[in-house]
Amino acid sequence: MESTRKGLRGGDLYKDTYERLNCAECEKALATENSPDEVFNVRKCPDCGREWKELP
Ligand SMILES: [Zn+2]
User: Fold this and answer.
1) In the chain, what are the domain boundaries?
2) Cα of 38 to ligand 1 centre, how many Å?
């Protein structure tokens, strides 16, 4: 799983006018899945199901 930072840099993600992370392919805001066992959050596109990890 790639990081959100890498996704932003590579053009797979972008930030909308509300500073939310969006999937560039689907133009959908990513959902957040908190996993208590991990130090990062998983950000998931509701359309294509692609996931990125969001590091603190
Ligand atoms: Zn998507």
Assistant:
1) 2-54
2) 23
CA 37-50-26 angle, to 5 degrees, is: 140
Give me ligand 1 centre to Cα 17, in Å. Answer: 18
Q: pLDDT digits over 15-51, tens only?
A: 999 999 999 999 999 999 987 888 899 999 999 999 9
Nearby residues for ligand 1 (ion, Cβ within 5 Å)? 23, 25-26, 45, 47-48
Question: Vertex 24, ends 18 and 14: CA angle to 5°?
Answer: 40
Distance 1 CA to ligand 1 centre (A): 14
